[in-house]
Amino acid sequence: MQIRRSRIRRLLCTLSKGLLAPSRGLTQEPQNLENVFHISEVRDKLREIVGASTNWRDHVKAMEERKLLHSFLAKSQKGLPPRTMKDSYIEVLLPLGSQPELREKYLTVQNTVRFGRILEDLDSLGVLICYMHNKIHSAKMSPLSIVTALVDKIDMCKKSLSPEQDIKFSGHVSWVGKTSMEVKMHMFQLHDNEFSPVLDATFVMVARDSENKGPAFVNPLTVENPEEEELFRQGELNKGRRVAFSSTSLLKMAPTAEERTTIHEMFLSTLDPKTISFRSRVLPPNAVWMENSKLKSLDICHPQERNIFNRIFGGFLMRKAYELGWATACNFGGSRPFIVAVDDIMFQKPVEVGSLLFLSAQVCFTQGNYIQVRVHSEVASLQDKEHMTTNVFHFTFMSEKEVPLVFPRTYGESMLYLDGQRHFKSMSAPVTLKRDYVVEP
């Protein structure tokens, strides 16, 4: 293990010389290799921070030992020292070009990079960043249990991802509440000896106590310059936007007048002109009923997919949902789609090891070449068989050619259509199709 770590450190030193340019969103001091990790070190570092066992049979003992960390928890946020954005800044290298043996895990049959694996890496990176922000130098292990609460937004800035070039992730805490933190992450790929931006991601993480049973306070955040002030202000705006979006949810409020008009016009366009009946429905040209755009899957949640707290790893759930969403978009559009945006993934309930994971994907909105896919996740235990929703995922794909329109038949499907339209409109500016290396499952 020590030899392997030395080899990794030598690789990081080699890659860092002239390549680790400052990331967007945060001005950096000269790089410190203590804050630079190889992708294989991230999960090991997290296990070390929380004292998690790599042996499934020892997980109960490891969790019992974490109870002793309660005394390190702060009684209030005022008792915790403030931290800066630079305190939590880290870089993680995924050397697909320098270490070809890593490629197979990330490779698709079309010789592209699996975006589902990137989602797993982002989830682990977000947790590690938050632990860096809340680091207690006097304690070997952290008393906090930090988990992903929300994937607020992932925007692709570039579609050309080669499996033969090194990738770099960077990120830091950008906003802090009392028990929650917003994390900004960026992904770059090496081209002509420079790391070019590939995606921007915003996650929201929450801190729990050492047994993951209740909320825990996190270190406050201080800003040091106008650039960081703007990042913090944007974090406040993001929080307000999420509250506003939730308050106008179609599960709580009726559609707007414009949305009601949209649905009624779609309904009228499906009435059979040969009959005078609301029940006789026909599809317009180049259209598909929403109910015919579904795909489903079932997975058994094995211990191999557990996180450091012995629940199912959130990155695994995102990868499985994304892969089903990609297959749904591919089946619907008739060509290979690529991901444009991911947003509003709320982790509502933890998934226990041994659960049955049911995923249902559905095309809920289309426009031009764009396909909006909603993936609903629910679990059931082998004992009670009761199904509980754990996540709802929203993915925006672009197809290589124009796709059919999707039409709702029922009121419930009409609400799914409007919800998909809202998520599509919340996407950043439309992107241009790149034909070289697109991002796939």
SSE layout and pairing:
Elements (H helix, E strand, L loop, with lengths): L1 H15 L19 E3 H12 L8 H8 L18 H4 L1 E5 L8 H4 L8 H19 L11 E12 L10 E10 L3 E12 L2 E15 L17 H22 L9 H13 L17 E3 L4 E7 L13 H20 L4 E9 L9 E12 L2 E11 L7 E11 L6 E3 L3 H15 L16
Parallel strand pairs: 1-2, 7-13
Antiparallel strand pairs: 2-4, 3-6, 3-9, 4-5, 5-6, 8-10, 9-12, 10-11, 11-12
| Total of domains | 2
Question: What is the class of the largest domain in the CATH system?
Answer: Alpha Beta
- Give me the CATH architecture of the largest domain, please: Roll
Terminal residue distance: 31 Å
Count of runs of 4 or more consecutive helical residues: 10
Indicate the CATH topology of the largest domain. Answer: Thiol Ester Dehydrase, Chain A
Overall morphology:
globular
Oligomer: single chain
**Series of secondary-structure elements, N-terminal to C-terminal:** HEHHHEHHEEEEHHEEHEEEEEH
Helicity level: 25-40%
Structural class based on helices, strands and sheet pairing: alpha+beta
What would CATH call the homologous superfamily of the largest domain? Hotdog Thioesterase
Q: Estimate the strand proportion.
A: 25-35%
Main location: mitochondrion
Organism: Muntiacus muntjak
Protein name: HotDog ACOT-type domain-containing protein
Family: Belongs to the acyl coenzyme A hydrolase family.
